[in-house]
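call fold(seq) -> tokens
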Amino acid sequence: MNIWIVTTGSSDVQLKTDEYWSDWYERSSVKQNCYRLPFKPIQIIEDSDEPYRVGSRVLGRVYKEQPEEVWEYLEFPLLHQFTTQLQIDKIDKIILLVTDQTIFFNEERREERRCAYWQDTCELQPIIERYFKEQEEFRDVELIPIVLSPGENTPGLDDWNHVLKIVRIKFSEILTEAKVVYVSHQAGTPAISSAVQFMSLARFGERVQFLVSNEYENKPLDPIDSSEYLRGIQVQQAKGLIKSGTPGAALQLLELEGIKADIDNKAIEDLEKLVDFFNLNRSLAAGASEFDIEPATQRIVDAVTLIEKLFEQENYLQGIALLASAQETFLKCAIKNEIKGRKVSLSIDGTSQDFKADDLIKWMREGLKFITNNELESRWSVSGSTKKEISRAINNLKRETLNELQFPVDDERFIGKYSGDPNTIEKNEFLLKWLCKLRIDFNPWQLLQGSCIDKNEDGKYEDDIRNKLMHNLQGVKKEEVVKYLLGNRDSPNTEVIDAYNTHVKPQFLEAIHLCGLPFTEQKLAERLQDVADAISVKSS
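ret:
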């Protein structure tokens, strides 16, 4: 099936002469129904061969009064060229777009000759239908009129956004199984022309071919393939996705539509780096580890920036999950930074021996942990004949190490619940207490404190949002997110992004500064804009 979508304007139906206009307009009831306004046909260029134009609604009414007499003097310069172009292909349906602003313009406004009401093309419909019926190639084609009509209290047909909405709704009614969709979108109203162009591409994609014509040159032009238009729209979509904070979707769009190869390599590299940034992937220097302080700190700061973007987009689940990870990573990173280079003096078999804290406690995927017992045995030559005695000796050495490094070994919960087990140091509640001992000037924010409390202890934080999300995959509401960010405190009418930017982000960054952790803060909005601006198809 092939479809032709035809927009209409005052240029579509014109008069060969103005010789009989006065008789037609004056002797009929048309003038009276046109508020006796002095409508007269005009030439755009004063030339003997130049046709005459008059308000579309007025011409339609004149034709209705004396159709046969008027028909003889009508001409269709644009439609004639379009039909000539389409004689090589069979058209099954013609979608005729006409305008009617009767509801939009009240009686008082219609009394002005300049009112756009008089340019409405709905009353040209009988004339255009007759034109197609008299063309042999279109005689049996199904003609479907679609009326674009704004409401009484809505924007008019000169409002681009509103017209796009109207056309989108109308186009949703058009069948999509068409093989080729020809579009002539040279409507008299720019907003309609652009909306038709955009929505035809959006709905039918590469099946669209645009018909172009020049009313001043009486010759048909070749249809324009839609691919360049479509690529332009897809590039604009990719730009929008980047600026909104979804660069991965933008990259995927460019790859799926085959546009990526036609974009400057540097722009694609920057986009791929941006995707890596959103996934917290960074290139490491040779020999470096992701658990080194500098790259780890940078990931934390990047995450703090990304969380803000997620909350702006109301992606609360992802924001909460990333924030919980960022806080836990911060504790490990800050503690590692505090104990690096420190020496621990331990007594082994009555002999004092110095060790570097970095050699004893490592940051691994499991968290901050002591090196393995086998490594400890090899370093300390622990006395004792049985595995149990060796294990007891190693645990004593671990506790002595923690005591030297100001770990809260005397904490009641550490002793009472975990029997002072040195292998439980990676738990958040002890990491926070440890950092507070290492840095007495560190003041944790409410959310960090709440996150490091054992939620099961004494029934505290029974409805903790992180527990609901991370362990039970329950949904969350905006009010719950705000309460979570404020450290389990209610704050009605507070927006999530405001709660984050006031009670979490600044305190988080201040703590990173306080602990002397090295990083470069990202200006994400500027970076998104720069990468989006660089995305364009290379000139051929």
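The mean pLDDT is 86.
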